[in-house]
Write a structure and sequence with these properties.
This protein is mainly alpha-helical and 165 residues long. It has helices spanning 13-37, 41-49, 54-65, 67-82, 86-92, 102-111, 115-141. Helix 1 crosses helix 5, helix 4 runs antiparallel to helix 7 and helix 6 (102-111) runs antiparallel to helix 7 (115-141). The longest helix has 27 residues, at 115-141.
Length: 165
């Protein structure tokens, strides 16, 4: 990552961001792969028949039908990164205003023997993570429709034989 800091990205926001993405990537891969695999292959065959390039089919068919899996993967990765401590300290350090994160803030408060404030911050972190994961669960259950999903496929076209309630 070249920039004003040269090719070394340690102790920079960019380095911390890159490290966090790589560290949390496994939490996104499974939801991404599952949502991409659930796209009906007949739609892709039809788009090919109509002359759509693979890139156009990906952008116009696969991505819209995979929105819930993409949101799930991104949210799980973000929630995992929120509480990450080791990677943040090793790559980003503890530079106020640049690489200071909530987990580092909790650590600093505990080191300063300010347990009440550390507990409040930890509770806030827990609530944010809980709300984020609850939103993802609601989206996946169909309580909050987000784009197209397999729930929007007419009952007569569903392969699993299930009908909507």
């Amino acid at each position: 990552m070249a920039g004003s800091h040269g090719p070394y990205a340690g102790f920079t926001f960019e380095g911390l961001l890159l490290g966090s993405i790589l560290y949390s990537l496994p939490f996104a891969v499974q939801p991404f792969a599952a949502s991409f695999a659930s796209v009906d292959r007949r739609l892709l065959a039809a788009s090919e028949t109509l002359g759509a390039s693979p890139w156009r089919a990906f952008v116009r068919i696969i991505l819209p039908l995979s929105v819930t899996g993409l949101v799930t993967g991104i949210a799980l990765s973000f929630a995992h990164t929120l509480g990450e401590f080791g990677l943040v300290l090793m790559i980003g350090g503890n530079i106020p205003g640049v690489t200071r994160t909530v987990s580092i803030d909790i650590y600093d408060k505990v080191q300063a023997v300010d347990y009440a404030s550390a507990n409040q911050t930890a509770l806030l972190l827990l609530l944010v993570s809980f709300l984020l994961l609850s939103c993802v669960y609601a989206i996946n259950r169909g309580a909050w429709p987000l784009g197209l999903s397999r729930r929007s496929v007419p009952d007569s076209e569903r392969r699993d034989g299930a009908t909507r309630a």
